[in-house]
Write a structure and sequence with these properties.
The structure holds 2 protein chains of 2 kinds. By secondary structure, chain A is of the alpha/beta class. Chain A has helices at about 5-15, 25-40, 60, 75-80, 120-125, 130, 145-150, 385-390, 400-415, 420-435; strands spanning about 65, 90-95, 95-100, 115-120, 160, 170-180, 185, 190-195, 200-205, 215-225, 230-235, 240-250, 255-265, 270-275, 285-290, 295-305, 310-320, 325-335, 345-350, 360-365, 375-380. The two termini of chain A are about 40 Å apart. By secondary structure, chain B is an alpha/beta fold. Helix content of chain B is about 40%, strand content about 30%. In chain B, α7 (about 185-200) links the parallel β9 (about 175-180) and β10. Chain B is globular.
Chain lengths: ~425, ~260
Amino acid sequence: MNVATASGYLESLLHGRLQLPASQLAWFNRLRADAVERVGAQRVPTTRNEEWRFTDISPLIKLPFQPVYAASNLQAAEVEHFYLDPAAPRLVFVDGVYAPQLSTQLLSPATDSNIMITNLSAAVSAHVMALEPHLGRHAEFHNNVFTALNTSFLHDGALIIVPRNVSVDMPVHLLFIATQKEAASYPRCLLIAESGSAVTVIEDHVALQEGVYATNVVAEIALADNARVNHIRVQRDSSQAFHIASCAVSLAQASCYRSTSITLGARISRYNLSVRLTGEGAECTVDGLTLIAERQLADTHTCIDHVKPYGISRQSHKCIVDGAAHAVFNGKIIVHPDAQHTDSTQSSRNLLLSGRAHIDTKPQLEIFADDVKCAHGATVGQLDSEEIFYLMSRGLSEMTARNLLTYAFGAEIIERIPIASLKHQLEQTVLERTQRN
Amino acid sequence: MIYQNSKPLLEVRELRATVNGIEILKGIDLTVRSGEVHAIMGTNGSGKSTFAKVLAGHAAYVVTGGTVAFKGKNLFELAPEERARAGVFLAFQYPIEIPGVANNQFLRLTYNTVQAQRGKDELDPLEFDDFVREKMKLLEMSPDFLDRSVNAGFSGGEKKRNEILQMALLEPLLAILDETDSGLDIDALRIVANGVNQLATKDNATILVTHYQRLLNYIVPDYVHVMESGRIIKTGGKQLALDLETHGYDWVSIEQRAAAGV
């Protein structure tokens, strides 16, 4: 790739900051300024960079899209098919801009009134003490140019704070709707789960229509002692879009983070998930399903970092790749010298539905403690002939057997989603995309 | 049970088969008539599970000689799913787990597929639910198994019960139970055997493939066949299974070699 072009791309993106409103808060402005500086100090990664060796993003740097600043006048009728059923608290962002007319903070009357589900800019001044230790602190941007870019555009975003020992009894829906072609958006999410709290959050990226646009989203999730967070991420962008995402999760003692990430859309997508178990006895489950076709490229990089003893991590990542699509999975597990008695498993299972489909999978274990249990496995292939025979011996045709097994391969991850309406939608998507006749 | 004048359901003549180019079945002869229960016993590697899979049509097993007629027609002209629809059922030694597909969906799909092929009525989810719950009572299975993924996380005994449940739903003419007793505790064995016994009629037949005599205390065979090195070397009544339990398999092969003058 031409470096001059690439740096020109970054400069031209930063140009879009001219319209960014300044904040009243010095630390907020400083954070953005630091990020701008880090954008300047880095380059757009190429396939010569180990972290990006399978994912060529050169098509993206030809498209220096500018962010949208105007509020959308999108009406509920146009987007309500994206809403959860039954209705849940919802923050909606249209092309990255908060849409209050589509959002609702509806919670049952029994719920603690101190739960905060709001847009970041509305809350930032009043909650500096709560936000400053977290915002921009978990999602590292010194060595990640896209996170630096997102942070340099930091203005608004989704904010959830669940107070101590409070359980939110409804899932919170963060809905990011792309409506404009050739636009860039920089959504931001911050979730703070105070000690002993529990919440389920759905981070949902959708498109109103097909089109080329670029999303660069950063999420930060902080779990205090004994907190529980269930994070469901659905990326169903336009199949022509670019989607670059980072999520940084920090787990304190005995907290529990569950992630289910479903990748369906985008021409090129990259998801970096970093989970740090910084307290003793923390636990995470990281599940992923990538289901792509045609010329899509979907790259998932995860890093589960066991810093303290008695941590548990469970990871299951699956890809179903059709057409000439290309899926990448890189799953790093780090066990620090202090993280004795870590119990970690990782499985990467991949199904190729066409001869032109392509998968790169790379489990990466870096273990520096001696008393640990770490198991990993990766498979790439077609359907198992024993499984097909089993179904045929029950009267199903070979085609039906193959369809059922392909569906099941994806549905195994989908069925871990605890929201019936979303689960059903995604099951239908898997069904439509895996059936042959 | 042996019925006078019952029709032959399965006629196996000089059956030979290979796996990966190695001959496993070396000339099997067997006739099963409707109403009968046959036990095929033998040590590991004798070819008894291969025989079961060849009958069901597993693609990894290549038939190299002989004939098998099912209801008078050439079995090998039928694809595995056609055999299932025609009434051949194999209960697997190691049933496959299908995480992501609910057991009730799977059971209804197979049931309706087979019903449609037999020109019978299919059932909608509600009708099927009532129907399958009734069948589950036969196997003392909790209705919870309907909502779980097919065999996923089932214990050995639960998987075998799920196999017999499928048998109860598909109502085969010929059921082949491949090591159905392996991995079962005594209670599960009793339940499974009781289910199989209740499904037996004068019109269907059962082949039990087993290593141990234990299962035959519960499902009493009309014939016991001893298999060794890909052949049936001895056939007797239920007493033969007891003799095998007491004396092991060696005496049969010694006797057989003596008879053959080897």
